[in-house]
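REQUEST FORM: STRUCTURE PREDICTION
Request ID: SP-0412
Submitted by: Lab K.M.
Chain count: 1
Length (residues): 215
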Amino acid sequence: MARPGSTTSETGNNYNTANGTGAAVRTKLNEIFTALRTLSSGSSDPSGAASIAQYQPHINTSTNLLKIATAVSGDSATYNTLGNITLDNLGHVVAATPTMTGDVTMSSTGFLKVPVGNNAQQPGAANQPAAAAGQFRYNSDTSQFEGYTTSWGAIGGGGGATGGGTEAIFHENENAMDQDYTIGNGASNINAGVFGPLTINAVLTIPSGSVVSIV
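STATUS: Completed
RESULT:
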């Protein structure tokens, strides 16, 4: 145990040593210093008025959580969890290039801003990070949201439908294809349509079993 007990402690404060023999006082001081050195680690949160104080940090070794007492009332305290000591950065997301595990829930009613860049800045392009399935960004050259599976493509449902109120009546598409495009990202039996006229200035790949209709 790395927390001082009540033996040879002053009444009401286990972190103060009571008067006693030299050996007893030395043992108590060592106990207190060990507790301070280990951030008062123990298999549970501290309890009892003699063992807790406001702003006192501790480590719960059962959960590996670093906590701090934000308020003390009688024999109990309110603790704020600072993080998990077994994880880098205590498990917190860092400001630069964060990696998160698990589900992410956002309760804001504002917005989520995704990366914005041009074609040359796409992951997978020259001097850019590698492309990987699941990547999502806004392409400032095409003015569209795009995602990556095995290649970059417009996000389904984001093709420019407009209308009045909540209606989505008109489908809009550009009349020139300037980037290589694979129908269905290479999957067979995927059909596609586009309103013409259409000028194709890049490679259009139509997998076996797929049909492209220009209206």
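NOTES: The CA atoms of residues 188 and 207 lie 5 Å apart.
Reviewed by: T.R.
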